[in-house]
Design brief:
By secondary structure, the protein is of the alpha/beta class. The chain folds into 2 domains: about 1-200 and about 400-405, 3-Deoxy-D-manno-octulosonic-acid transferase, N-terminal domain (Rossmann fold), CATH 3.40.50; about 210-395, Glycogen Phosphorylase B (Rossmann fold, 3-Layer(aba) Sandwich). The chain contains 20 helices and 14 strands. It has helices at about 1-20, 25-30, 35-40, 55-75, 85-90, 110-120, 135-140, 165-170, 180-190, 205-210, 220-225, 235-250, 265-275, 285, 305-310, 330, 350-355, 365-375, 380-395, 400-405; strands at about 50-55, 80-85, 100-105, 120-125, 145-150, 175-180, 195-200, 230-235, 255-260, 280, 295-300, 315, 340, 360. The chain starts with a helix and ends in a 9-residue tail after the last helix. Residues about 410-415 have low confidence and may be disordered.
């Protein structure tokens, strides 16, 4: 653990330095100030605690269906939700179905012991990728059951490399793994781990729930009526520039565009506005108006993207020209075809959607133009692709129920 401790300490020191001039690093550091004092004040002594930990916002969307269901089925439990990253905490710090939301203290031995001593969780759910060695060791030593939900493993991960012995040992300490796919199960089996269930991805349940509880926007209904709407969700500059180029070439009054960028700070919003000769409308200017007097709308706020897909005919999902694409399922559940950039292979749902002809991958503007032209001109092709996407989501729901039935059962359950 010596090297691991050094790595964690070094990470924290770097964060302290970056916090002097970087907003996100400042939030990362400031959010952990007084975390133990705040926990002591908020954690009740007369209720059992369920602790759910997510790295960031994407993992939260996978954990959310479980938290929502726990709140319905076992409201007597106090739910503690922790985040590692400001990207998750700052967006979901007021999430109503968690009784308390905070940052996870850095994974040092001292912090892990103090955190568990204060919280005394009855059960712990780590979402997808979270493997903090000191927290795992303390939970195991204290005989507190902990699980990985919506877990996914790949051969390239450190667990399966010659240098991954320290991390492999911790996998054996988990009480159970709820996995997204059979490949992950086979990889665990190679390590001699059989405590797993292939339950699927809880995000499918989340996006299905979104379609059942939509927020409607009358001005967007008018905006999309008798028009074909392309929605760029969680977009980055590479995709935004291609969209601007495409719209400049087409100059079609029946073609409309909604851009909901991943980053909504003023500099990025101004960059997007500068791409278009016709000044786009800003959501914060028109959200209370009955009409939108532009064919291009830029959403300069967060928290509404998942409901916007109901007004779209085609979705472009950002991130694929960077580290990896964002949430494709939020669009697919509405039965619209999805387009994304080349860096999608690490995302099972994107690979599956492409194989099932509900999504299309692009490498450059020429690909982008060709695929968009096909989808715009051929209504049957567009609708068939959209239905393929919707069918994929509908046939992969149910993970939440499987996990809930297991962790709330009499043998391992919340009633103990």
């Amino acid at each position: 653990m010596g090297l691991y401790q050094i790595t964690i300490t070094t990470y924290w020191l770097i964060a302290l330095i970056y916090a002097l001039f970087n907003k996100k690093a400042k939030q990362f550091v400031a959010g952990r100030k007084n975390v133990f004092r705040n926990l002591k004040a908020r954690i009740p002594s007369d209720r059992k605690i369920i602790w759910v930990h997510c790295a960031s916002l994407g993992e939260f969307e996978q954990g959310r269906p479980l938290i929502d269901q726990l709140k319905k089925e076992a409201p007597e439990y106090f739910i503690l939700l922790t985040f590692f990253s400001p990207s998750g905490y700052e967006v979901r710090k007021n999430y109503s179905n968690a009784d308390y939301v905070c940052y996870l203290p850095m994974d040092t031995r001292k912090n892990a012991k103090q955190f568990i001593r204060i919280v005394k969780p009855s059960k712990v759910l780590f979402v997808k990728y979270e493997f903090w060695l000191n927290y795992i060791d303390v939970l195991h030593k204290e005989h507190i059951p902990f699980y990985l939900v919506s877990g996914i493993f790949r051969k390239q991960q450190h667990f399966f490399q010659w240098y991954g012995k320290t991390f492999r040992k911790r996998l054996h300490k988990f009480n159970h793994f709820f996995l997204q796919n059979k490949t992950s199960a086979l990889l665990l089996k190679e390590l001699g781990i059989n405590k797993y269930t292939v339950a699927g991805d809880t995000r499918f349940d989340r996006v299905k729930e979104i379609t059942n509880n939509l927020q409607s926007y009358p001005n967007l209904e008018a905006f999309s009526k008798e028009a074909l709407v392309i929605l760029a969700g969680s977009s980055w500059p590479a995709g935004e520039k291609m969209l601007a180029q495409f719209f400049a070439m087409k100059n079609d009054p029946n073609l409309k565009l909604i851009i909901a960028p991943h980053q909504v700070h003023d500099d990025h919003i101004n960059e997007i506005l500068s791409l278009f000769p016709e000044k786009p409308a800003l959501w914060t200017d028109v959200e209370k108006q009955t009409t939108i007097n532009s064919n291009i709308l830029v959403v300069d706020t967060i928290g509404i993207l998942s409901s916007l897909y109901q007004y779209a005919d085609i979705a472009y999902i950002g991130g694929g020209f960077g580290k990896g694409i964002h949430n494709t399922l939020e669009a697919a559940t509405f039965g619209i075809p999805v387009i994304f950039g080349p860096n999608y292979q690490r995302f099972r749902e994107a690979v599956d959607l492409k194989e099932q002809k509900g999504a299309f991958a692009i490498n450059n503007f020429e690909d982008f133009e060709h695929i968009l032209d096909q989808l715009i001109r051929d209504k049957f092709h567009r609708q068939r692709s959209g239905e393929n996407a919707r069918h994929y989501v509908q046939t992969n729901t149910g993970a939440t129920k499987i996990i809930m039935n297991s962790i709330t059962g009499k043998e391992s359950g919340l009633t103990q």
